[in-house]
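From the shared-data thread, chain only:
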Amino acid sequence: MRAALITIVLALASPIAGARDPYIRTTERDGGVVALETASRSFVGPAAQRVTLVGVTHVGDGPYYAELATVLNAHDRVHYEGVGPAWRDIEPDASARDRARFTRARMRDAAAQLLADYRHGGRARTADAWLESYPPFRRRSLVTALTDGWGRPITLDIDTDKRTYTMISLGADGAPGGTGFDSDLERTGPIDLGNEEDPSDNAIQSRLAHAAGLSFQLDEMDYMPEHWHNSDATLAEMWDVEPASLFIDDDPGDEDGSGDPLFAMLSGESGLAKAMGSVLGFIGDSPRSSFLFRVMLVETLGAADASVLVAGLGDEMAEMLLTRRNAVVMRDLQEALAEDPSRSVAVFYGAAHLDDLEERLVDLGYRPTETTWHAAITADPAAVGIKPEQAIAFRSFVSSMVQVQMAQLRAMQERNAGD
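Structure, as tokens:
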């Protein structure tokens, strides 16, 4: 149960309470209604810079994401989370050799995703149709994958009659042909048409959302506006290694491009994920079970303590998942404000990160000015025919279990600190 608690919270990347004013809370309303709310908090810097930290939970009610989008798009610039592949960022002074390596790595991963989609029933006949089949977050990542190391589009031709694909970069000179690093880079291969299964249905986060009658953040939010910027670590930055050390130049037969068991679980490909998916599917088919699952999410996410969960990860994992990623956010934030101190900037992250980011802002002389709360998940027993007193009793039971688990994690944290 202890490991399950940490896994659920991290899988949802949800806001969790910390030592400062929280970025998440649970509120009670009449009739046994309970709601999970997340905060957006505004700050003013020493030179009147304007920054807003916007917390989010990765599953929630549809209107919640529309409300957050309104808040975010009122800013001149939005920095959002999303760990990227090693090839995502190319240094301005990168050599032609490195740009060619980045290009090949991007082609490989784009091809791996394309082939996976066709094995799962994809039928797009053009590159544009393929990209449009994705929600904005994934689409934006694939647009990057189809941009070569010199910043020019990689052409993608899909021939479903011949069942082949071809990708071409025109190299350093941007013209057909050439020699050396000016020569074209090409990747081509067969397409295996599979069944009609929708791969997105396998994602464990999507199944969690369905089980609770909720929406998934990456399906609801529009990440395509030009003023939105991915401000997260790449895998190379998380592992603190050179990007080239993670490049693989083999055939993209591994559809997800990763042997990571956590990645496999979250994408729905592991045996554990499929078993969990079956259970979650059963829950989602019952309105009453779905309501009870909502209550469990509200209580678990609302009561979890960030510092304790981080301690449960261990110092090395916490450094990788939190500290290094926050350092990237602060670097990008300071660079953006250095370019134009008058612009308003929003940081759109789970609040497991926001306590630390707030501390960093305060250390730089920022002060909080306003906090606004947004209802992420609302559980109304009347909507599914459950009496208020029954809902309150169930919530009390779940809350007591969560508190016991958190107490055990705190005790483990204290023991580790004493060693």
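Residues 2-82+262-418 form one domain.
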